[in-house]
Design a protein that fits this description.
Length: 151
């Protein structure tokens, strides 16, 4: 029989208290950190895993959502106008690789992020407005059969 430990869930690293947001801060949710502490959740930060540093420029998806980015129909752009689309795709693929290694079926991801957001993300105007859609990593995981939840 497969135990719970054999199938960990993925969590956004910032929710586990890791200082990996673009500002170099975290978005700690104690209940989610406890899952990592208990060994049943794996923290991942797709922006950093794609190659971005801490801190880094704020980015948003312009021209669509994460699924559009994966299809190269939308871009991820930093607030100064740098195109970081391929970095976001690389990070999403790195997270997916971990999901496959551990047979992950579920992920709890940080809301609104252009990588981790589930269902609602910032709209690309850098004015804190939201639009429907998920981030690049959330979209890829969902596409590959991982259930993604927002926190
Ligand atoms: S929301 Fe996702 S990409 Fe952004 S800091 Fe948290 S884990 Fe990293």
């Amino acid at each position: 029989m497969t135990s719970r430990i054999d199938r960990p869930i993925l969590i956004s690293a910032c929710l586990a208290g890791i200082d990996c947001t673009y500002r170099g801060k975290n978005k700690l949710k104690p209940s989610i950190k406890k899952m990592a502490d208990d060994g049943i959740a794996i923290p991942v930060c797709p922006e950093v895993m794609g190659g971005l540093g801490i801190p880094r420029e704020n980015s948003e998806i312009v021209g669509g959502d994460g699924m559009d980015v994966l299809k190269r129909r939308a871009r991820v752009i930093t607030i100064s106008g740098k195109d970081v689309t391929e970095i976001y795709i690389k990070g999403a693929k790195a997270v997916l690789a971990i999901a496959r290694i551990y047979s992950v079926r579920k992920a709890i991801l940080k809301s609104k992020s252009p990588a981790c957001g589930v269902g609602r993300i910032y709209d690309g105007s850098f004015t804190k407005k939201l639009k429907n859609g998920s981030g690049v990593t959330a979209s890829l995981l969902c596409q590959k059969g991982v259930k993604v939840y927002s926190a």
